[in-house]
Amino acid sequence: MRRLILLRHAKSDRPAGVGDHERPLNDRGRRAAPAVGAHLAEAGLRPELALVSTATRTRETWEAISAALGAPEAQYHREIYEAPSTRVLDVIRGAPDAVETVIVIGHNPGLGDLAAALAGEGPRKERARLATEFPTAAYAVIDFDAATWSAVSPGQGRLERYVRPRDIDPELGG
User: Fold this and answer.
1) Backbone conformation region of residue 90, classed left if phi is above 0, alpha if psi is from -120 to 50, else beta
2) Cβ of 73: how many Cβ atoms within 10 Å?
């Protein structure tokens, strides 16, 4: 079995004169990210590999959650930065087959589109909600009966859970 965790970066700031790739997390994002990391760890969702966009906000999100997850190996991929779902899936398909659980930290709309496309099974209400919103610091866990990462395909996954920051703590918003 393959388990994929898709996590949208936490809420970012928009400082004047700072390019999109370099935008940092804002205060809400700096609160939400560790809360999400703790929530993942408490649920036993500990990836062996993180595939992270090179954007500042995704790297800061990873830094805020990685210790709670046991600090697994991280690989930084420019290809994930603001990528369409097909490009993110290409990066996932390149993950080593020895790894069973992967977390991807990226951006919308590509990440939300990918989550909705991969989750062909699972609770209908959750899949419908996932298809309409994937806010900052939200994550989806999708399981696959696939022998390799290269075999992961749209419609073949089962949505195990979909969590928004406000599901963890209403004050986190998102």
Assistant:
1) alpha
2) 12
pLDDT of residue 171: 78
CATH, residue 119: 3.40.50.1240
Q: Please tell me the predicted confidence (pLDDT) of residue 174.
A: 54
Cβ neighbour number for residue 20 with a 10 Å cutoff:
13
Alpha carbon distance 111, 87 (integer Å): 10
Q: What is the pLDDT of residues 32-73, one digit of tens each?
A: 999 999 999 999 999 999 999 999 999 999 999 999 999 899
pTM of this prediction exceeds 0.85: yes
Look at strands 49-53 and 73-77 and give their pairing.
Answer: parallel
Those residues of the chain that have pLDDT short of 50 are none
Q: E strands within the chain?
A: 2-8, 49-53, 73-77, 101-106, 119-121, 139-144, 157-163
Instruction: Specify the residue for token string 């062909």.
Output: 120
For the chain, the domain total comes to: 1
E strand map for 11-167: 49-53, 73-77, 101-106, 119-121, 139-144, 157-163
Range of 110's domain? 2-172
Angle at 162 between CA 76 and CA 87, to 5 degrees: 35
